[in-house]
Amino acid sequence: MNRYVYATFLCFAAATGHAAAQIQVPINPRATFLGIANDPSAVPASGIPLSALGLSPGVWVEIATVGAYSANSGPDTTRNLIAVFSTSPQLLTPANGLVQRVPGAVPIVHGAPIATRNTQSQNRPTDIAEDFVVCRASWSNGATIQVPAGAAYVFFSVFNPSGSNHFSNYSDPNADFFAVLTPSSPAVLQGTAEHCELRTGVNGTPTVSPDLKQAAAFTTLSVEVAQRFGESTGELFAIAANAYATNGAPPVGPLPDIHMGQSPVVVQIGTMASAPALWSFFVPPGNAGTTLVVQGFFLAPNAQNGIVSASNAHRIELQ
């Protein structure tokens, strides 16, 4: 059974309730929903019904990749992938430099937007506002996305994050490149699911999860803020914190997906580089029953809320 037939079987099984929670969708690296020019081997990407993937508007899904493809006759190790949701499977023919080929494209509320580069031939623009990044080689593999209202289909495409695209130069010699979709749940204190990632550690290496940790007196809390896809270098970052009673409710606001309340403290600020930024805190005694909530932010011009992208917030229960 070839991989395209296998994927169709998986989609059918999902729709009839007989598939495992995880579904793999084959990715043809020459198939795209982006604009093209003088790209004879490029083919149209297919709109995949969300119902066949067991998804619907409002649900959360983790999309990652397995395998890889070859770009520009290079090794079969590239795994850059973007996607866009749509109200329909319609994909327009890329005539006369058409940029928006997905007329039903639906903007995301949670997810990392991506600015795609111009075409290799004729330097035509390809960037649309509604697409988002799933995976970038040498950076994060996978994104947690909330399916936006009105979405009924999803399109996938590979992309070149550091140069122009020419899809005729892409191939998958061993046919092993797949998008992997896994139903997910939002974090307890969900951020905007964009480029900003928070990691925390107590007397150890900071990690993304768990996002709830305990810190005894005289331990050291280490906090890192990092970018997920290499799209935020040079942006202003901040790490902010607030405290609340452990048996109470975490702070809310001041914007959706921000959990700082009305009186946060900015504990670290600077310019984002490729390496994570670090803040550490020595836990003093006498704070049992208090929880520290910490969240990272990028001041990002293309953020979904127009101001900042926000990491998931972590809770540190002081002992």
DSSP strand tally: 23
Beta content:
35-45%
What number is the mean pLDDT? 92
Total discrete domains: 2
Distance N to C terminus: 56 Å
How many helices? 1
The proportion of residues forming helix, as a percent range, comes to under 10%
Overall outline: elongated
Query: What gyration radius follows from the Cα positions, in whole Å?
Result: 21 Å
The arrangement of helices and strands along the chain is HEEEEEEEEEEEEEEEEEEEEEEE
Largest sheet: 6 strands, mixed
Structural class: mainly beta
Spans where pLDDT lies below 50 across 5 or more residues = 1-20
Brief summary:
With 319 residues, this protein is mainly beta. 4% of the residues lie in helices and 35% in strands.
How does this model look, in words?
The chain is mostly beta strands. The chain has 2 domains: 3-184, no CATH class; 196-318, Immunoglobulin-like. The chain contains 1 helix and 23 strands. Strands 16, 18, 19, 21, 22 and 23 form a 6-stranded mixed sheet that branches. Strands 4, 8, 9, 10 and 12 form a 5-stranded antiparallel sheet that branches. The termini are far apart.
